[in-house]
Specification:
The complex is a heterodimer of chains A (141) and B (150).
Chain A (H helix, E strand, L loop, with lengths): L26 E7 L19 E5 L4 H8 L9 E7 H6 L3 E4 L8 E5 L6 H9 L5 E2 L8
Antiparallel strand pairs in A: 1-2, 1-3, 2-5, 3-6, 4-5
Chain B lengths: L19 E10 L1 E9 L2 E9 L5 E7 L3 H7 L4 H10 L4 E9 L2 E10 L4 H33 L2
Antiparallel strand pairs in B: 1-2, 2-3, 3-4, 4-5, 5-6
The chains are: A alpha+beta (141), B alpha+beta (150).
């Protein structure tokens, strides 16, 4: 099973994807959207469902980030991405681990070992740079 | 054994009924977005079609064939995305609306090869027609009530 976890497959074997260590000097990409009118970059987990936020390993374009999250459609100006250095997240107490899923082998989980309150959300946001929105090409990183 | 998933209102989209078992997660971004589940001995694929980051989202439930299951469990990244698209094509799907990660309503859609975005659009169109029909029914009941009270 992939490191991200995968439930229990009966009779089938799920593709095996090795998780790897992530260095402090590496970056993660955080996908966001302004499809609903306002930019949305989740800054805390939905704790009734999950204890972690998702990100993407490396500095990927908004188009690639979208492709790894959304199943339908093509990138638009509503697709954005922001980047954080992994060491900057870790020094603030966040854990950053590679947790690949078959559909997104660059998936990263970001956790905080205490309550993820407004202050933690603010610290999390401060680790990221200004969002870059899709401008119609795959350029950039 | 049913060809179609039987969802339950208020269930999580990725675990859409009390008698559903999770088999494998294929994708996740804050929440599970695609995976394989089992209901009454049948394996279904679930996938979020639209609204992955939003409060309202649209989900599709498909019954993949064994060769499709083999693809879904062996491919990665863009190849897997294409296999998911293929496993939604040319069959009857259950397509559902969820709000705040709870299923609200669903319909059956006879899918061709239009792809997930067009499927989501057809779902929205179908839901709008259903709501319009219900609105007409409400309007008619109100009209009859008004006539009766004269």
């Amino acid at each position: 099973l992939p490191a991200g976890g995968g439930g229990v497959l009966a009779g089938d074997e799920l593709v095996d994807i090795e998780a790897r260590e992530i260095g402090d000097e590496e970056y993660v990409s955080h996908y966001g959207s302004r499809l609903s009118g306002q930019p949305v970059f989740r800054d805390r987990p939905r704790q009734k469902d999950h204890d972690a936020l998702s990100a993407i390993l490396g500095q990927v374009t908004a188009a690639e980030a979208r492709r790894r999250v959304r199943q339908a459609g093509s990138p638009t100006g509503d697709d954005g991405v922001r980047y954080a250095r992994v060491g900057d997240l870790r020094v603030q107490g966040f854990t950053v681990t590679h947790s690949p899923w078959p559909r997104n082998t660059k998936h990263v989980s970001i956790r905080y070992p205490g309550g993820w309150d407004n202050a933690v959300a603010g610290t999390f946001n401060a680790c990221f740079g200004t969002p870059e929105w899709y401008e119609g090409s795959e350029g950039g990183h | 054994m049913s060809d179609l998933l039987l969802p339950e209102k208020d269930a999580r989209p990725w675990l859409p009924a009390a008698n559903v078992t999770a088999l494998a997660t294929l994708n996740e971004y804050d929440i599970p977005l695609a995976g394989l589940i089992e209901q009454s001995g049948t394996t279904f694929l679930y996938v979020c079609l639209l609204g992955e980051l939003e409060e309202l989202n649209i989900w599709a439930y498909s019954r993949p064939s064994q060769p499709e299951r083999d693809q879904l469990t062996s491919l990665t990244d863009d190849d897997l995305a294409a296999a998911i698209d293929a496993a939604l094509a040319d069959r009857v799907l259950v397509v559902a609306l969820a709000h705040d990660h709870q299923l609200v309503n669903w319909v059956r859609i006879d899918a061709g090869v239009e792809g997930p975005l067009a499927l989501a659009k057809r779902f929205v169109d179908q839901m709008r027609r259903r709501l319009e029909a219900e609105q007409r029914e409400v309007d008619e009941l109100e009209r009859q009530q008004a006539l009766a009270s004269r």
